[in-house]
Design goal:
By secondary structure, the chain is mainly alpha-helical. The protein has helices at about 5-25, 30-35, 40-60, 70-90, 95-125, 130-155, 160-180, 190, 195-205, 210-240, 245-270, 275-295, 300-315, 315-325, 330-360, 370-390, and strands spanning about 360, 365-370. It contains 16 helices and 2 strands. Helix 1 packs parallel to helix 6 (about 130-155). The longest helix is centred in the middle third of the chain and has 32 residues, at about 210-240.
């Protein structure tokens, strides 16, 4: 990769960073927000899943336009509307308005990752996509390492709305970099304009390779999103962390994944994406099983388990995503990644709702049945490998 390409990937990582902070910031502040807006657990599940279901609808609709415009311009418009949706979340003072704001933010924010990955596929050759994906996905890690702890600090020091205003300010600076540094990307337009969007939808059911890529994309995230929305609350009430101590869980997990994600991308390019995925997937099952079954434990042991979850459960997405990128031609890549994003959001939303139905809490806030979620996450992780084995890097 050239220095210019690394610079582009770094800006895309910042886009992902702000996008992920916004989508995750509610979770570690769950008990504070539920108390402030007098919400129960089912309403909390609606708050989280409304973003995901809205993103699913947006992903389906975006296939009709995503490949018809310059990638840079399309990302700029989406990102600007996402920022406005984030502002609405910060202005919410009722449960109903927060649901509306999450739907608005999800509609535009949920498509951003599809555009970002389409750009990676367009400007980075296949032999370097593992490394490029690792850099971009470092935005996820940085969001956890810096954004989430800072969001918790701001939310506890002022109020739960203040982190959204912080994200708006940071996103505006990133938007300026998108406009001033990223190149125009029009190479795909000549072919894309000759292909109707409906044709992309019609081809996918006939393309077994892409069908398997979509199923894989769902299974790899399903187990994670059955765990992540409830992890902070579980660690607080079942393991005994104080709210301010949750910062350390995200800080250590984020810092370590910020370091390991680019390295995992390098290993994927060097030793094969399938082999590295298998290793990441198998190791990830250990912290998943431990976290969802543990009770009160010393903080170092808990942080070791949660950091392992962030490193390996997130790390397996890097080689998996690099392989999925290779199943779509450039002229349809944006549309295909939109569909992928849509089905992932749908699977994640179902996982969140499933978690809310399986989990129960007593009067003290302690969770029960979290180990069942762990079994589901491990099962879908193993299933994802056998699906990925059948996917070919071709279109």
């Amino acid at each position: 990769m050239t220095k210019k390409q690394i610079g582009w990937m770094s800006i895309l990582a910042l886009v992902v960073f702000t996008n992920i902070i916004e989508s995750m910031i509610l979770m570690p502040l769950s008990s504070t927000i539920k108390a402030a807006l007098s919400m129960n657990d089912n309403q909390w599940g609606v708050i989280i899943s409304s973003y995901l279901f809205s993103a699913f609808i947006a992903g389906i609709l975006s296939i009709f336009v995503i490949d018809k415009f310059d990638r840079k311009r399309f990302l700029f418009v989406l990102y600007a509307l996402f920022i406005f949706g984030t502002l609405l979340c910060g202005l919410a003072e009722t449960y109903e308005f927060l649901v509306f704001a999450r739907i608005f933010a999800g509609f535009f924010g949920g498509v951003i990752s599809a555009v970002v990955l389409a750009i990676v596929g367009d400007v980075i050759p296949p032999e370097h996509r593992g490394k490029a994906t690792g850099i971009v996905m470092a935005g996820f890690s940085t969001a956890a390492a810096l954004g989430i702890p800072l969001g918790i600090f701001i939310g506890l020091k002022w109020n739960w709305q203040m982190p959204f205003f912080f994200i708006v300010g940071l996103s505006m600076l990133t938007l300026i970099m998108v406009a001033s540094v990223l190149p125009r990307m029009k190479e795909h337009l000549a072919k894309a304009k000759t292909v109707k969007s409906w044709e992309i939808l019609r081809r996918i059911p006939k393309n077994g390779n892409q069908i398997k890529a979509l199923v894989f994309s769902c299974t790899i995230l399903f187990g994670q999103f059955a765990i992540i929305p409830y992890l902070a609350d579980y660690v607080e009430h079942n393991i005994g962390f104080e709210k301010k101590e949750l910062v350390w869980m995200y800080f250590f997990g984020g810092i370590l994944t910020f370091i390991t994600n680019p390295f995992i991308g390098f290993l994927s390019d060097r030793f094969g994406q399938m082999r590295i995925f298998l290793i990441m997937m198998l190791i990830s099952c250990v912290p998943i099983g431990f976290i969802t079954a543990m009770g009160e434990n010393p903080m170092p042991l808990v942080l070791l388990a949660t950091s392992g979850f962030f490193i390996f459960a997130g790390g397996r997405n890097i080689p998996g995503t690099a392989l999925v990128l290779s199943t779509a031609a450039p002229f349809e890549r944006g549309g295909f990644m939109s569909i992928r994003s849509a089905v992932q959001q749908l699977a994640s939303g179902i996982a969140v709702l499933l978690g809310s139905w399986i989990l129960t809490q007593d009067e003290s806030g302690k969770y029960f049945n979290f180990e069942i979620i762990g079994y589901i996450a491990i099962g879908t992780s193993i299933l994802s490998y056998f699906i990925l084995k059948t996917i070919k890097s071709e279109y």
